[in-house]
User: Which sequence fits this backbone?
């Protein structure tokens, strides 16, 4: 028996976690709602009598009619402040608290899943969801944009004109930035999820935190705090749409998010590794 | 969690004898002492009944033993490994049902089991589907394997919970109130399931507040009352102090009492046994039997010779129930 038991299958839990995540109707409902944003936007612009002028409406909206690829970018801009973080709040806030409220947490732990392993797997699946969420907006944006507006040339913020291939790369970069933006939030959500046995409560708390951070980011009196807010660089992807690309805010954001992941990951570990599971 | 790291080293010595061993195990919730310094000793191979009224601390004890909650004080070992330090090694060999089953309502019964099996990194994915099917079959759920867990009845969920505990061959099975919500047929099936698991050499630790259910299958038992262990031992030991009783069912109640008294027994009429209710003319007479009294068969012969019409005659071993009630109090109210 010992010889046989020495072979372990540690990755199985992650596979199972992803299966559970993507088999839930809730996950698909959220992805469908995200996909509806670029579709709605593109259809409305297409149906309106005159194209939006420069600087009108959401950023880059005027570019949409020139190059369908910019539908994806504009949709990402629209969903980043609220819609996208809400879905991430649902998934990350539910990570541990949801298992606790179902009662499955105790069975995972006596399986034994291992507390650290479970925490890591839960975070990995939240990251997978962030990727799926921004990927959904991006892909639907591309598809509907190409269908309604074609794939002509587009003008960057620096005035340069780029072709289709370059536009795909630029929108991919924006998608990467938005995904990275959600990673810190997911870590905060994971931590909050270890504090309670009520999944809905944890989700709501994460969502409220997102909004509070953005409100604080608007108050000039708190300028000293702004660089430390996880929402600080959320809309800072204009630099990715210049020629040449300015990487400063992209990299600053990546560093900030990494710091949030490390800090709240450590807090989640500290809390969860000693927590009494009484649900 | 308490400092038991050194204890995890000295493994094999005790592991051969005791499946669960606690010493001075205490768990407090704030001011309330849910488990108060208990010393459990569950021998390997036993079917161990963990009895106690509602709120006496059974589930809390199980949670602490399985590492879900940290003990406030005391130490314990499961399958020879210290808790919590050695749990990663012990838990793959333990199957558990803790305070009712719990599942993902949106997954099928079989997928729920696959999920739990995947959480155990020692479980071989190559044999997963076979083991899941075998476990479902064993609890009589093979036909409902593809049904979503949310569509399971209470009893089906209970069975699925037991199936989850049987996914891999276990050395120890911890079952907290396994017959909760089951119909009488299901209760019988669980009992025979426990017997068959025990016959394979698995130690079974089964908690219940319904003693009659457990009494038939246990070899050992412990009785909890308000967080403390008030009795523990083999079933024979626990019964030991009780009285054997002879019971006569007869239409001639008074004659039977007189004849039994004549034989030197302290006989008295009692309420007729259940099931005899429709037989209105039947009386039940009981008398405690001690070592120097006549043998039961001689008592029957004497009764018949005296013209008492004997319809039924029983020699009742002292029931654990009486002992249970004596130790925990009879009241229906939870003690706190
Ligand atoms: N999470 C908790 N917080 C505070 N007190 C608790 C908690 N869980 C249990 N208790 C208390 O601990 C005591 C023991 O509870 P426990 O669940 O272990 O009883 P039990 O023997 O399993 O009862 P039952 O037969 O009803 O399942 C009870 O008085 C209960 O109120
Ligand atoms: Mg209980």
Assistant:
């Amino acid at each position: 028996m010992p010889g046989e038991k020495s072979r372990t299958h540690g990755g199985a839990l992650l596979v199972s976690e992803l299966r559970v995540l993507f088999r839930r109707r809730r996950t698909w409902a959220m992805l469908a709602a995200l996909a509806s944003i670029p579709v709605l936007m593109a259809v409305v612009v297409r149906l309106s009598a005159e194209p939006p002028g420069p600087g009108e409406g959401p950023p880059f909206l005027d570019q949409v009619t020139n190059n369908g690829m910019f539908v994806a970018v504009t949709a990402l801009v629209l969903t980043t402040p609220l819609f996208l973080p809400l879905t991430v709040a649902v998934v990350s806030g539910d990570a541990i608290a949801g298992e606790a409220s179902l009662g499955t947490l105790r069975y995972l732990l006596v399986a034994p899943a291992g507390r650290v392993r479970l925490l890591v797997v839960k975070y990995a699946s939240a990251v997978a969801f962030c990727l799926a969420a921004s990927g959904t907006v991006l892909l639907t944006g591309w598809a509907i944009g190409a269908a309604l507006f074609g794939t002509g040339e587009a003008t960057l913020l620096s005035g340069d004109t780029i072709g289709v291939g370059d536009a795909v790369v630029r929108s991919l970069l924006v998608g990467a930035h938005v995904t990275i933006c959600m990673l810190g939030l997911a870590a905060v959500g994971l931590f909050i999820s270890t504090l309670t046995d009520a999944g809905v409560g944890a989700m709501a708390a994460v969502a409220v935190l997102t909004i509070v951070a953005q409100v604080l980011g608007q108050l000039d009196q708190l300028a000293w705090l702004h660089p430390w807010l996880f929402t600080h660089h959320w809309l800072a992807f204009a630099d990715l749409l210049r020629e040449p690309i300015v990487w400063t805010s992209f990299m600053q954001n990546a560093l900030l998010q990494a710091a949030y992941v490390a800090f709240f990951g450590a807090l989640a570990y500290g809390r969860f590794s000693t927590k009494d599971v009484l649900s | 969690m308490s400092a038991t790291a050194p204890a995890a080293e000295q493994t094999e010595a005790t592991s051969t004898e005791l499946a669960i061993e606690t010493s001075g195990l205490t768990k407090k919730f704030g001011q309330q002492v849910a488990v108060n310094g208990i010393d459990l000793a569950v021998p390997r191979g036993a079917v161990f009944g963990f009895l106690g009224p509602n709120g006496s601390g059974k589930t809390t004890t199980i949670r602490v033993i399985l590492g879900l909650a940290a003990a406030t004080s005391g130490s314990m070992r499961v399958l020879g490994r210290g808790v919590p330090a050695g749990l990663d090694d012990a838990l793959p060999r333990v199957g558990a049902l803790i305070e009712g089953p719990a599942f993902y309502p949106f997954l099928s019964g079989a997928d729920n089991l696959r999920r739990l099996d995947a959480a155990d990194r020692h479980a071989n994915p190559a044999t997963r589907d076979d083991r899941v099917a075998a476990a479902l079959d064993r609890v009589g759920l093979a036909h409902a394997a593809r049904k979503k867990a949310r569509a399971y009845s209470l009893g089906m969920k209970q069975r699925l919970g037991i199936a989850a505990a049987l996914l891999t061959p276990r050395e120890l099975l911890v079952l907290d109130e396994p017959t909760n919500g089951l119909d009488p047929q299901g209760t019988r099936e669980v009992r025979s399931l426990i017997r068959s698991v025990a016959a394979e050499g698995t130690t079974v630790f089964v908690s219940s507040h319904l003693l009659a259910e457990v009494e038939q299958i246990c070899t050992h038992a412990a009785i909890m009352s308000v967080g403390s262990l008030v009795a523990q031992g083999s079933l024979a030991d626990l019964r030991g102090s009780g009285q054997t009783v002879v019971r006569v069912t007869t239409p001639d109640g008074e004659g039977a009492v007189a004849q039994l008294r004549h034989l030197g027994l302290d006989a008295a009429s009692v309420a007729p046994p259940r099931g005899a209710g429709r037989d209105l003319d039947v009386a039940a007479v009981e008398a405690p039997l001690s070592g120097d009294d006549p043998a039961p068969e001689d008592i029957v012969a004497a009764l018949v010779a005296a013209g008492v019409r004997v319809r039924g005659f029983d020699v009742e071993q002292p029931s654990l129930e009486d002992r249970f009630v004596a130790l925990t109090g009879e009241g229906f109210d939870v003690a706190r």
About this structure: The radius of gyration of chain B is 24 Å. Chain B touches chain A at residues 1, 63, 66-70, 87-88, 91-92, 94, 96, 98-107, 111, 114-125, 164 (CB under 8 Å). Residues 243-317 of chain B form a domain with the Alpha-Beta Plaits fold (CATH 3.30.70.260).
